[in-house]
């Protein structure tokens, strides 16, 4: 089944008198369990496309079906609810709330999803443990390294067992070694069946995705599958 079905999506911004066509008739289907890297030059529309897929922004025209749910004509509240149920986000700058501990950050999406406190705590704890952050639950983001913060952000994204994980330059703010560790985590999550759509400027990361979609000036100009030999370590559980 396709988890993402975008049909002839456009996004146009008004800039003074002229229209800025940021997405021009994007049609894209993503199968459950796939790992898609979106690449393209700065300003080509990658984040705009990601925000559309993530229900953070609505397209100007076109239709979008997420996990079987037709999203056009849905109101803001319904969109937010669907987003909270289905999508885990990972951002370049981690986007953790600075006043909350690692544990509380991981719990946040579960609060929105209405999961009771005890279960929330337990799941947050398990997620942090799974990502090697079990000892750091009480730390504030400022007390953690970049790689550790991104692990907390990944734990937060996974806490609701999302159907889809969206990542916008998840390794962009990390040194190359830590970036490699985060890539390994993402590969493991995909090997466990999670669907991943990730924006990257890094060709090494794109080479590790199963499928690469290339954007330019708001159009998909290339779409191919990598021939990946799964290394044994990707099949180990996190
Ligand atoms: N809210 C907005 N209003 C007007 N123009 C916008 C808005 N958001 C994005 N744009 C414009 O849309 C174009 C695409 O932006 P987008 O952020 O999607 O690019 P990108 O491919 O993610 O670039 P980068 O690699 O630099 O992150 C840019 O020209 C940008 O200036
Ligand atoms: Mg961007």
Largest sheet, spatial ordering of strands: 6-7-8-3-9-10
Outline type: globular
- Please give the alpha-carbon distance between the first and last residues: 26 Å
The class by helix and strand makeup works out as alpha/beta
- Number of alpha- plus pi-helical segments: 7
Number of strands: 10
Q: How is the biggest beta sheet arranged? A: 6 strands, mixed
* Strand residue percentage: 25-35%
Low-confidence stretches: none
| Attached small molecules | adenosine-5'-triphosphate, magnesium ion
Order of helices and strands: EEEHEEHEHHHEHEHEE
What's the gyration radius in Å? 18 Å
Helical content band: 25-40%
Q: Write down the overall mean pLDDT.
A: 92
Briefly, what is this?
InterPro entries: AAA+_ATPase, ABC_transporter-like_ATP-bd, ABC_transporter-like_CS, ABC_transpr_LolD-like, MacB-like_ATP-bd, P-loop_NTPase. This protein has 238 residues and is an alpha/beta fold.
Question: What is the topological layout?
Answer:
Layout (H helix, E strand, L loop, with lengths): L1 E14 L2 E14 L3 E5 L6 H8 L7 E6 L2 E2 L5 H11 E5 L10 H11 L4 H14 L15 H13 L5 E5 L7 H16 L3 E5 L3 H6 L2 E6 L2 E7 L13
Helix pairs in contact: 3-4, 3-5, 4-5, 5-6
């Amino acid at each position: 089944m396709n988890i993402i079905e975008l049909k002839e999506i456009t996004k146009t911004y008004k800039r003074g008198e002229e229209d800025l066509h940021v997405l021009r008739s994007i049609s894209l289907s993503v199968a459950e369990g796939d790992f898609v890297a979106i690449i393209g030059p700065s300003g080509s529309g990658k984040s705009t496309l990601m925000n559309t897929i993530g229900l953070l922004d609505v397209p100007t025209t076109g239709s979008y079906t997420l996990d079987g749910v037709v999203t056009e004509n849905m109101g803001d509240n319904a969109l937010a609810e669907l987003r909270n149920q289905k999508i885990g986000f990972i951002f370049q700058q981690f986007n953790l709330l600075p006043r909350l501990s690692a544990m509380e950050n991981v719990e946040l999406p579960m609060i929105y999803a209405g999961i009771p406190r005890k279960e929330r705590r337990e799941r947050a704890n398990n997620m942090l443990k799974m990502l090697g952050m079990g000892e750091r639950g009480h730390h504030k983001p400022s007390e953690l390294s970049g790689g550790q913060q991104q692990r907390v952000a990944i734990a937060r994204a996974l806490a609701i067992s999302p159907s889809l994980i969206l990542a916008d330059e998840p390794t962009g703010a990390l040194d190359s070694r830590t970036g490699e560790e985060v890539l390994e985590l993402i590969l493991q999550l995909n090997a466990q069946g999670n669907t991943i759509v990730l924006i990257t400027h890094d060709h090494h990361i794109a080479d590790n995705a199963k499928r690469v979609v290339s954007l330019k000036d708001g159009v998909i100009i290339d779409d191919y599958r990598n021939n990946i030999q799964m290394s044994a370590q990707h099949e180990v559980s996190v």
